Amino acid sequence: MNRSNRSIGAGRAAVGMLASLLAAAGVCAQPTSPPQPTAKDKPAQIETHPEINAGFALGQRVSFIRGQVEIVPVVVIVPDDATSYIEAIARWTPKARFPVLIDDGTRQATEDIARFVRALKPAKVVRWEVGADFKPAEGEPAALPAGIPEHHPKQLAALADRAIARAWGFDKSSAETVAFVGHLKAMNLTPPGIVLCNAEDQAWTAGLALAAGHGQPIAWIKAPQAPGGTMSKAQADALVKSAQEAAKATGLKWEEMGDDIDAVSLCLNVPAKFPFVEGGKGGMASTTDVVGRKPFSEAGEQAPRWAFSSVIFGTRARGAYSAMCSLFLTPAKAWIFDGYGDSGGFKTFDGTEAGKLLTERGKLEVVVDDAPHQDEAAWRARSAKAIDASLVMVNSSGNADFFDLKPGRMKPADIPILGVPAAISMVHSWSAADVSARGTVAGRWFDHGAFAYFGSMEEPFLQAFVPTPFLAARLSSRFAWAAAVRIEGGHIWKLVCFGDPLWTLAPTGPRRELEPDGKFALQGAVDLHAGLRELLKAGKLAEAAQTLVLLGRDEDVTRLVDSTLKDKPALADAEFCAAALPSTFRAGRPDLLIECYARFGENMAPNEYFQDCLWLSCRPGTPGAPKGKRVIEILEKNIRADNKERDGGEVGISRAIIK
Length: 659
Description:
Layout: H1 4-13, H2 15-25, H3 50-68, E1 70-71, E2 74-79, H4 82-90, E3 96-97, E4 100-103, H5 107-120, E5 124-127, H6 153-167, H7 177-186, E6 193-197, H8 204-214, E7 218-220, H9 233-249, E8 263-267, E9 273-275, E10 284-286, H10 287-290, H11 296-299, E11 308-312, H12 316-328, E12 333-338, H13 351-360, E13 365-369, H14 376-383, E14 391-395, E15 397-399, E16 402-405, E17 408-410, E18 422-427, H15 441-447, E19 450-456, H16 468-476, H17 481-484, E20 495-498, E21 526-527, H18 532-537, H19 541-550, H20 554-567, H21 574-586, H22 590-598, H23 608-618, H24 629-637, H25 644-658
Parallel strand pairs: 1-3, 2-4, 2-5, 6-7, 6-8, 8-11, 12-13, 12-14, 14-18, 18-19
Antiparallel strand pairs: 5-21, 9-10, 15-16, 16-17, 19-20
Helix pairs in contact: 1-3, 2-16, 4-6, 4-8, 5-12, 6-8, 8-12, 13-16, 19-21, 20-21, 21-22, 21-23, 24-25
């Protein structure tokens, strides 16, 4: 950790190298002032523009620190209990840390934890919680009362502030901001950004993790809670000013790009948009495009940027997932789907060129779907199985509820399921109009496991996006996420950034070897693998399948389903089949998925995620999909609410063929 300040200088000095990299890749030409297209677009002044310099240097700072911290290869699952989550993170140290995820009992939490485990491939997965007799040490904030933690915001904030301080070896509270920053600087770490949280908002779990992970102060504020909604212009202005006040409170330099504070993490269920002109006549503006700028109420639409911002929203479990993915996972694979032609401005978004850069410079394993394989059939072939890419980049056109390829019109129901957590970049209009609704493009990506997303919540014009090869070059050069996706010098506009603004493609630090006896630092942690044999012996197949899923062992789940159906079919009840069904999809066994569905019975409520697994793998015409009357009947019973017309039409055609 003791060389971090030197890395800042090195990052700034290396911008010339980045300019050469981009020039060699042939991706230097891009408009500098979106959103309106201009007659004469000038080449970007890569080596001099302050936002480019700052985005690159910020990424180098974060990447350097990321590489210094050892990863303890143990995934810790805590219940939906704020005290356990906070206390687990408080056990991090400046030298080593372990991921902490929340199991709130929902199917989404199970799937998110399983995605994370499959990506990290830890030595252990354990469950841990503070005991019923847990008492904070003398001088520590009192434990939270039972019930909803956000109903006790002051106490929750005090516990989180103290946990951040403990994680960095500070003997006071991180709420003593100047003293906490001084402690970090004494360790040669200058905080790269600030975190804004609302202790009455469940997304605080992400804020705690990002503050403790990156070494950042938290500011506790009030903000509206409606991630798919719209806030007022006054509320947006108040949020902008809250970020500015929080930056000032650090005592660090913050007013210019490239100084100390260059990132704002909005860990809030805050609306992603607001009417820039009262009454909405001028269209909407992006929340994450105004936070980190000087107040627009004073500086107008050209308000200068002093930091890059991004937002993490969701439940306590989803907030923890999004933050842990950024802090602990190293991307290995990427998938690029280019649904654009090769003429005019679309040519600068070439997916094939982006793939070359990610392969050669980013050292990722890249799959590219481009001309002549950029149509509906190519998309469906990919989405029939889980996507194992950590970075997904898509070029398409359309609206919030459809996206067009060359040729083919796809719906949110066609969004693939992610086998591992992924960051998504979608060059597409309106995709993020309502991220809380799974009937929208961005909403379905999040439902299927995205931890970061960049897209537009209205019509932005093509020139507002960073061309796909340029974005690939930036990410390959370890730009910070919220900087990489933004056009430099643009005025306030409609593109929204989700996820940790400081996420980079840089590898994490080395893995720490566990003790020979396998013991882990959290006393009382229960190894999931240790109890698996007993569950199987006792015939508790649903619990055994759930445990295998959390351990990332889909192939073993599939074998268990297969053997149970053959040898003990009476034990393959609805509970067991529900626990196992997503694994059969990921393992590429649509035949077993159909068998699981056949055992659900009439009383089992439809599960939208299961229905996506069903249709993506068993849709008529999908290669390898099971056929027959029973399959069509199961599809007919599971026509998706947001895709009724298309699903119903396909069932009707199939029935006619069978007859």
